[in-house]
Amino acid sequence: MAHLCNRLIKIKEPIKVQAIRYGNKADHWSKLRKKKTHMNIALKHFDEFYGNVYGQSWKYIRAALLIERHKYMAVVNIFSDVDRIKSELEIQGAINLKIIYETYMKEKKLKPLNDRQKKQKQEIGSVIDNAQMSTIQSNYPADYDSLPVSLSLKEENKNLTVKQDTFVEMKSIESNLNEIALDENRIVHPTFGLGGLYEFVPATKLKGLEDWILESQHYGYYKEGAEFSVKIEKEGVLTFPKYLNIYTFEENNYKMFPSPKKGSTGVLDYYLLDGTSVLPVLALDLQPGDVVLDMCAAPGGKALTILQTLMPRMMVANDIKQSRTNRIDNVINQFVADIGEWHDKLFVTQHDARYITDKDMYNKILVDVPCTTDRHVLHSEENNIFKPTRIRERLQLPELQADILANALKIVAVGGTVVYSTCSLSPIQNDGVVGMALKKAWEETNFIMIVKDMEEALSPLKCLYKFGDFGLKFGHIVIPTHKNNWGPTYFCKIIRVR
């Protein structure tokens, strides 16, 4: 009997150990299920979609997007102690974006163009003249260890051609359409149009709440935008408002800006935002007396940047939900002094942007639409649009975006500017939406629109931004890189001329 018991014990022991071993394996189904996060779903979707759109470039864009270290710029608060703030930022080694741009433009006028084209890399010291560099260095203590002496400046394109500024004579489109010389370089023709975008949409089946939806078929109606052509005009200069000061660090410098403190006026010194978020604001070309609408303003960074210019005669920051307008109010309360003085100039409203009806009231409209927020969905589970319960919402984003942009085009005043922007790499949400909205606005209003080609105007900023060239017909896209990990941001500038 004792012998039999010993045999039973020997049999039981390996069974017990075996159960523990298999239960703890890292590749067990229960462990794998937990690892399938919404962030992983988003990354898989991007690999399938953007891998086809961006080809070999996708692996570099992907690597930059996955880095948690994110680069920001600091917008100096005009309602605080401006001179002190600028001095403190420059002591830290930050450089004013306006200085970089304006000195590049000055150098372009003074030096022969051929000399610039021969160099792919040159230091900013050869662009910023000695007087300007001395001004920056004067803010540093005499015994400071590392005075700023240069900023790495790289031309991203080997064969960059800088053309002279061209001035377009405005003509009456109604009276003499046939005599207007069209720039066909970026006109979308029906023969090729936007149709090529749709081969890049992944044809995987996504299960909705009640039935299966083929994602590539969902976007099919956007091919209608390929039938619409629009005039493209070149824009040679990006205007920096006098009172807008934006600070950044040179490429490969990931020094963090300290948390802003309150100044003598009781508001915070500066606002930190993604380095590409300033470009749609600059594209608005704000002028004194503008009446500005930010259609989808939350959390409020771009609206605040617009206020920092002191240009608007009136500013309306709108969003669809109270939770979002509360975020705008919070930003304004933290950064704008003497709110009472702005009671008849600054308004925070809560409306669905598709149905705002204040026609011909605004001459500048920013349309920073809800999108897939490509960087956010790779780093946060919270409010991730790739949740299974948000599939329909995600698929309907382009339709929502096109409706919002089309409404902006319908209500903007004649001669006014609309800037459309997203933080997505999707060609459907970007050029695809612009094409569809332009077509829709034309069919419903017969308004005439012009799209601005800003390649030349943006060229001085190639030392800080990587502007992607992936067959875009309407707008411009900044893609993230290891050296400057901000973005992505797409933006397109549209002018109503009739």
Can you characterise this structure?
- With 498 residues, this protein is α/β, with parallel strands linked by helices.
- Helix content is 33%, strand content 15%.
- Strand 5 (205-207) and strand 6 form a beta hairpin.
- Helix 14 (397-411) crosses helix 15.
- The longest helix has 22 residues, at 2-23.
- The radius of gyration is 26 Å and the shape is globular.
Give keywords.
10-stranded mixed β-sheet, 15% strand, alpha/beta, single chain
Number of strands: 18
First-last Cα distance: 103 Å
The number of helical segments is 16
Shape: globular
Q: β content, as a range?
A: 15-25%
Poorly predicted regions are 7-13, 15-22, 116-214
Largest sheet: 10 strands, mixed
Overall SS class: alpha/beta
C-alpha Rg, in Å?
Answer: 26 Å
Mean pLDDT comes to 79
The helix fraction, in percent, is 25-40%
Task: Give me the secondary-structure topology.
Blueprint: H1 2-23, H2 29-35, H3 38-54, H4 58-66, E1 72-76, H5 82-91, E2 95-96, H6 97-110, H7 113-117, E3 121-123, H8 130-137, E4 152-154, E5 205-207, E6 212-214, H9 215-218, E7 231-234, E8 246-248, E9 270-274, H10 278-283, E10 291-294, H11 301-308, E11 314-319, H12 322-335, E12 346-350, E13 364-368, H13 391-395, H14 397-411, E14 417-422, H15 428-445, E15 449-453, H16 455-458, E16 466-468, E17 476-479, E18 489-496
Parallel strand pairs: 7-15, 10-11, 10-13, 11-12, 13-14
Antiparallel strand pairs: 1-8, 1-9, 2-8, 3-4, 5-6, 14-18, 15-18, 16-17, 17-18
Helix pairs in contact: 14-15
